[in-house]
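Dear Dr. H.,

I hope your travels went smoothly. While you were away I took the liberty of generating a structure for the chain from your last submission, since the lab meeting agenda had it listed for discussion. I wanted you to have the full record in hand beforehand rather than looking at slides cold. The sequence, exactly as received, is reproduced here:
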Amino acid sequence: MNYYNEIDPFAAQWIRNLIKENLIPNGEVDERSIVDVDGSDLEGFTQCHFFAGIAGWSYALQLAGWGSERPVWTGSPPCQPFSAAGDGKGTNDERHLWPQFFRLIHECHPPVVFGEQVATAIRHGWFDDLQADMENEGYATGMVVLPACSVKAPHRRDRLWFVAHSIWNQQPWKKSCGGEIGRMGRQQQPVSWDRTWQSALSEFRALDDGIPRSVAGTDAARNAIVPQVAAEVIKAYMDFNDEVST
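The corresponding predicted structure, in token form, is as follows:
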């Protein structure tokens, strides 16, 4: 079972629509702020998606062939504190929610965490703080900046992509909030992807299920990750992890 945490009601309903159409795995959609979520709320969930938006990370996992039974957390914390279009307050902005995300990671210790942030966050020390937090918690971390055009999307959209791998991953049957952690293989038949980003976005918009076209819909799509880029990050981790494990 998946857990989707998304505070925006429009985006949360979008996730429910995608679940209804079987485009992403079934799960619970929680519209509370991450500030109000406790580790105990996450017990029994195999995959947890925070700041879920329109479930781009969930879809990216499918594109990469990451099986629905394989534990993972994802999160793309708000970019406004670090965006060039924002106020530039950085970690002093109340929308800087990495500490809240890390609080739950500390409580539950998921085996793998994937995430994303605007590339301009680097000069605010955002990844430095993340890396220090995660390494103190027993995770190896890595990051890369990739643009949307790297998968032939018609725009640049530079983003910082990161992965954190727990040393607990080497110890099968340890417990986490998401249940048992063990070595689980890659899904054998990954979802094929042979369409353009524009057509994919059109398909997502077609699933509004009665929600009128609006500024909210445009904002939800604009704030979403590009799943095809995320899928490449996930596959790179899977390939490296498989190589190290053999």
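Two observations you may find useful: Residues 170-175, 178-216 have pLDDT under 50 and may be disordered. The chain has seven helices and nine strands.

With kind regards,
E. W.
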